[in-house]
Amino acid sequence: LMHFKFKKNLAAFDCATMNTDERNDNAGDISPIEASIDISVAQLRPILESARDEQEIMTHMISMIDFVLSERMGLTATRTFISGFLDIVKEMSESLAVPLVTHVLESLEGRVVAIKLFLADTAANKQEWRKAADYLASIPWENRSEDIEGAFAYLRIAAYYIEAADFQEAETYVHRSSQIFKCENCDIEARKKMLCARILQGRQKFNDAAKRFYEVSLCILLPVEERTQMIRSAVLCAILSPVNQLRSRLLSALYKDSRTKQFPLFPILEKMFFENILPLDLAEEVEKELPVHQLQPTKDGFTVAQSAFIEHGLMSASKFYKNITLRDMGNLLHVSEETAEKFAARMIFQNRLDAQIDGIKKILMFKTRSGLEFLNEHIRYACESLNSINDDIAAAYPEWYEKIFESYKE
């Protein structure tokens, strides 16, 4: 006979054959005297044989299953019970056996899920992000939860994979959250965009990432702290973006957004917006905001922040020079002549810099612009500077500014 021992009072066996509600209701009537009772699985047979119908058998068995698989029972007792339980189930009809075995599996699954959630939280607290993601990913969320719970779980898994710098897995779980769980929830949609932006940032697609971050920062459904973090990330990605038209629009939008003035990187954002050439050592301020995996030098020997500063310097020089020697260009950018030529050649090839390189004379020749174009550039710069001064005055003296503004309306 398969035996299992457990500490319980003298009425334990009768209690085990009750349903759960009856057992809870009668718990106060049970004698407090406790003793070791040796119950064999074989004792279930006469109870089952005396049952009037299958429903009564089902009730007795489920009561026993719930009792044994409760948190009060140890691992040894549980294992012994399951072994004997399977012997009895084999003799039952399929209509009884399948629901009972399913009930056992569901009861055990609840324990396993609770353990995995605990392990995931513990790993996350230790910043072991991949372990935390793997524990959560091993839970069959699509089989056991509501759509909204499963969607949030998949987004949490994606967030852990992003922290582990595994952007492929992160993207997979973001997509799965939409494909498997069909729920219309604005908070979930906002968090999907947030995670997509972080994935783009991790893959160094800074233009697209900055655009996504800025869009999410305007979502009023998110807490203020998260929106602030999103626009801060948008500023970082805009600074790191390759030179093109989208970058120019992003720099303009972020510079004019009053929220960006509080960030440490705002002075760099401002200088880039006004197309000033920045010293290369200033890139260290940007690198303080970057994750570890984006601090490694690229194949050019520069970090992503340093490369962004060099490209920005070349673009800025094109606004003020008709031509310049590569040596002087290198001195302006605080890099070698060869590095200046390499970056300029790449930008010209990618149609991001309108210029030519005279390889013999070592001269970088920018597209000649008419006097009217230069005049328009200066007018634009003057207008944007005036707008900036106007905004600063309004922020410093709001009451006076409003009074003056109203007087102009009259």
TrEMBL record:
**Annotated GO CC locations:** COP9 signalosome; cytosol
Recorded coiled-coil stretches? none
Matches recorded under Pfam families: PCI, PSMD12-CSN4_N
User: rRNA-binding: is it a keyword of this entry?
Assistant: no
Domain (PCI) spans 202-371
**What top-level branch of life does the organism fall under?**
Eukaryota
Q: What is its main location?
A: cytoplasm
Assigned keywords, A-Z: Cytoplasm, Nucleus, Signalosome
InterPro entries, from UniProt?
PCI_dom, PSMD12-CSN4-like_N, PSMD12/CSN4, WH-like_DNA-bd_sf, WH_DNA-bd_sf
The subcellular localization recorded is: Cytoplasm; Nucleus
Q: Enumerate the PANTHER family for this protein.
A: 26S PROTEASOME NON-ATPASE REGULATORY SUBUNIT 12/COP9 SIGNALOSOME COMPLEX SUBUNIT 4 (PTHR10855), COP9 SIGNALOSOME COMPLEX SUBUNIT 4 (PTHR10855:SF2)
Q: Which family does it belong to?
A: Belongs to the CSN4 family.
The name under which this protein is listed is COP9 signalosome complex subunit 4
Q: What is the lineage of its organism?
A: Eukaryota, Metazoa, Ecdysozoa, Nematoda, Enoplea
The gene for this chain is COPS4
